[in-house]
Design brief:
Strand content: 15-25%
Number of strands: 5
Shape: globular
Largest sheet: 5 strands, parallel
Helix content: 25-40%
Strand order of the largest sheet: 2-1-3-4-5
Oligomer: single chain
Length: 171
């Protein structure tokens, strides 16, 4: 079991009822700033950032974000280990996780999707693909909340996004 004692940063701006919180787990400041700029274009989303897997787990447990954006190349605790922890924890299994990686063509996409990631994007990704993944994850999370189902292992419905099979979607 993972013991998490990382401090949880507070949000500078509290989201309004119409905003939805996105948790970004990213240790690279340049990548983090890029996502902040992209998300800031949307008035209905608020972004908070964790700089390590352990900090991200603690923030996810405490804040219950609508979606998690997870970098796969993280120090100390890998992005994959963070993903598995998030998806296996009762506290966070319902939160869709969009994985972001600079590793292409080495089977990491299949590994992440098979583990239960909602979507997998390879850096550099297109802004439209990132936003489509976030929107699909938000839509799915809302539908899953109505049906009381975990929000992982589901196929994203945007072009250029890796998709996964889930037994939850079969009849």
């Amino acid at each position: 079991m993972v013991s998490v004692n990382a401090p949880v940063p507070t949000m500078k701006k509290r989201p309004t009822l119409s905003e939805r919180v996105i948790l970004q787990i990213e240790n690279n400041p340049a990548n983090s700033d890029l996502v902040k700029q992209i998300i800031s274009r949307r008035g209905d989303l608020a972004l908070v950032t964790a700089t390590s897997g352990l900090q991200g787990i603690e923030m996810a447990r405490a804040m219950q974000p609508a979606v998690i954006l997870l970098d796969m190349k993280m120090p100390f605790m890998s992005g994959f280990n963070t993903l598995v922890w998030l998806l296996e924890s009762v506290d966070t299994a319902h939160i869709p996780v969009v994985t972001l990686s600079s590793i292409a063509g080495k089977g990491e996409d299949r590994q992440c999707l098979n583990a239960g990631a909602f979507a997998y994007l390879t850096k550099p990704y297109k802004i439209d693909d990132l936003m489509a993944s976030i929107d699909a994850a938000l839509h799915f999370a809302a539908a899953a909340a109505e049906n009381c189902q975990p929000a992982h292992g589901q196929a994203a419905s945007a072009p250029g996004i890796s998709r996964s099979y889930s037994p939850l979607t079969t009849a």
